[in-house]
Design a protein that fits this description.
This protein has 338 residues and is an alpha+beta fold. It has 5 helices and 22 strands.
Length: 338
């Protein structure tokens, strides 16, 4: 042991030269978790007029995609642009007659249609019509492109696991043209409950179904039993495994009752889009009032309760699947403290 300051300074200099740091002096060692991040709501009434500027300024012919990111107020730099930890959301716009050229990437992505009709997304060669409330998946390394044959703008919510891939160093992108398309099975082959086509395979890392029609989700959630918090919810799944439709993201649609749901807390992060109805959510110390097409965050660690005007449908995407696979998911129900 160094017995005086000169000896200790020599030791520290030797540690620095060898790129060694004493853990017992680290400010991050055994540090308590930070306070939960505050939620944030993007009001459709506020942002919809601003989308017109993007329509005028950019086009898919000029840029890869006409997209406006929903960036958390806690983000501090372009390298930190996220909506919640591990997930980023954005609004994408396609005008009549436009196409968005094919590409693929390591990140998983979803599209929840918010406005318009007449567009379609082609995923690994499968044509997926886009109508309000539909969920379209573009899993990791699946080729995808968009085209619009309708008469009015089509606007959808994108959500991707970009921040996670940036942290892991696994973010990668490949532009078209499309090559090496895999064999696929029509979505119609999976359209009947409890029945699967012979030879569909063991399941893979993502669902063989890329389009989940809103009408099917509405019927399913109406028939679902109430969850522990009082809301009815169904999960979008891979029909071959019953697990998450894509490897690192979870997707739910939930029907909110008129009375407040039981308070709930989780260490997962979520992004919530209002498909139908209106209501209020208590998230930590914040109270958010929401209406159709609003998007808001549910950051980890906050106590959460929702109350609708009756029959609201919320689409929720989260990083819950990541935590579940790692054995790190922690959830609590029923805390009644203010």
């Amino acid at each position: 042991m160094a017995e005086n300051r000169e000896d200790l300074a020599t030791v520290r200099a030797a540690w620095r030269a060898a790129h060694l740091v004493p853990l017992w002096e680290s400010p991050t060692a055994h540090k308590p978790p930070p306070q939960p991040e505050a939620p944030y709501l993007w009001s459709w009434d506020a942002i919809r007029p601003l989308l017109a500027e993007a329509m005028a300024i950019a086009s898919p012919a000029m840029v890869e995609r006409r997209v406006l990111q929903l960036v958390s107020p806690s983000s501090r730099s372009p390298e930190d642009e996220k909506t919640v930890p591990n997930l980023t959301a954005a609004i994408q716009i396609l005008l009549p007659g436009e196409t968005a050229r094919p590409h693929r990437h390591s990140m998983n992505a979803l599209r929840l249609v918010l406005e318009g009709k007449g567009a379609e997304t082609i995923v690994n060669g499968k044509i997926c019509a886009m109508a309000v409330g539909d969920l379209i998946l573009t899993p990791s390394w699946c080729w995808h492109e968009h085209r619009h044959r309708g008469e009015n703008p089509v606007i959808w919510l994108d959500a991707l696991d970009v921040p996670l891939h940036l942290y892991l160093g696994t973010a990668a992108f490949e532009p078209g043209p499309v090559t090496d398309l895999p064999d696929t099975i029509s979505d119609a082959a999976f359209a009947h409950a409890n029945l699967l086509p012979e030879g569909a395979g063991p399941g893979g890392t993502h669902s063989p179904v890329f389009r989940y029609p809103y009408a099917d989700a509405v019927a399913a959630v109406a028939a679902a039993p109430r969850g522990r918090d009082g809301a009815r919810r169904v999960r979008y799944v891979n029909p071959l495994t019953g697990g998450a439709a894509m490897a690192l993201m979870d997707y739910l649609i939930q029907l909110e009752p008129g009375e407040p749901t039981l308070r709930f807390r989780t260490n997962s992060n979520a992004i919530c889009a209002v498909v139908e109805g209106s209501g209020v959510s208590e998230i930590g110390d914040a109270t958010l009032s929401w209406r159709p097409r609003d998007v808001f965050t549910l950051p980890q660690g906050n106590w959460i309760s929702h109350r609708s005007d009756g029959g609201a449908r919320l689409f929720v995407t989260s990083d819950r699947e990541i935590l579940t696979r790692l054995g790190l998911l922690h959830e609590e129900y029923g805390n009644a403290a203010a």
